């Protein structure tokens, strides 16, 4: 199954580079390029991409505002997954984008293999939360946010354990090893957590876990 990708960046060279790299993959198809957030919103509705590579800082409409519009739009069907592109590893706009529903972020200087892998991971419904840099970003900015009242009372103790480990950036396989469970059982628990808390994906689960106080920000690694 071909994954349709929309590339959004205000620099033509960056767009062309990403498009060439992704277009050379047999399972990826670049369906459009946009130079700003406003164009991205229009093309997202027109092309129905599976994944959008979205720059954070752009003229006319920035990546954060565009992400909010796209993910809260009324376009029929499943909304696309959004990967935020940034030059900076600690960028408050990226944290805000995770809160808005983006599925993760990627540094612009990532390797071609990392770029293609990121698109596949997000298209599969996972989130780019494993790298330590992502955990650090979420933890840093979680410290600046007020802790909301915990509303995870509907979660079972095991589901709460799984949520905590998801928030620490562990994959399903790592969670299975930690809790001595089958990987399929972990997938089921994650699905139930997302459903009960009305969350789109693991990225929002991480943000929720920190903001609700289920997990406390820890030291940097």
UniProtKB/TrEMBL annotation:
InterPro entries: CheY-like_superfamily, NreC/VraR/RcsB-like_REC, Sig_transdc_resp-reg_C-effctor, Sig_transdc_resp-reg_receiver, Tscrpt_reg_LuxR_C, WalR-like. GO terms for molecular function: DNA binding. Residues 148-213 form the HTH luxR-type domain. It comes from the Bacteria. The modification 4-aspartylphosphate is found at residue 55. The keyword Acyltransferase does not apply. Residues 4-123 form the Response regulatory domain. Keywords: DNA-binding, Phosphoprotein, Transcription, Transcription regulation. PANTHER family: TRANSCRIPTIONAL REGULATORY PROTEIN NARL-RELATED, TWO-COMPONENT RESPONSE REGULATOR. This is DNA-binding NarL/FixJ family response regulator. It comes from Kribbella orskensis.
């Amino acid at each position: 199954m071909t994954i349709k990708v929309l590339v959004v960046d205000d620099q033509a060279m960056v767009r062309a580079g990403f498009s060439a790299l992704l277009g050379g993959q047999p399972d990826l198809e670049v369906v459009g390029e946009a130079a700003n957030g406003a164009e991205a919103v229009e093309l997202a509705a027109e092309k129905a991409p599976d994944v959008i590579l979205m720059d954070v800082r752009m003229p006319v409409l920035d990546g954060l505002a565009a992400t909010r519009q796209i993910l809260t739009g009324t376009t029929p069907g499943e909304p696309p997954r959004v990967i935020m592109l940034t030059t900076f590893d600690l960028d408050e706009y990226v944290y805000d984008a995770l809160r808005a529903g983006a599925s993760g972020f990627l540094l612009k200087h990532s390797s071609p293999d990392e770029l293609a892998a990121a698109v596949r991971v997000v298209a599969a419904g996972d989130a780019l939360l494993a790298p330590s840099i992502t955990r650090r970003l979420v933890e840093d900015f979680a410290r600046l946010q007020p802790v909301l009242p915990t509303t995870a009372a509907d979660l079972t103790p095991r589901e709460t354990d799984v949520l905590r480990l998801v928030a620490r950036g562990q994959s399903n396989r790592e969670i299975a090893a930690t809790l001595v469970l089958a990987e399929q059982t972990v997938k089921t628990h994650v699905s139930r957590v997302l459903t009960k808390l009305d969350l789109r994906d693991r990225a929002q689960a991480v943000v929720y876990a920190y903001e609700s106080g289920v997990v406390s920000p820890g030291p940097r690694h």
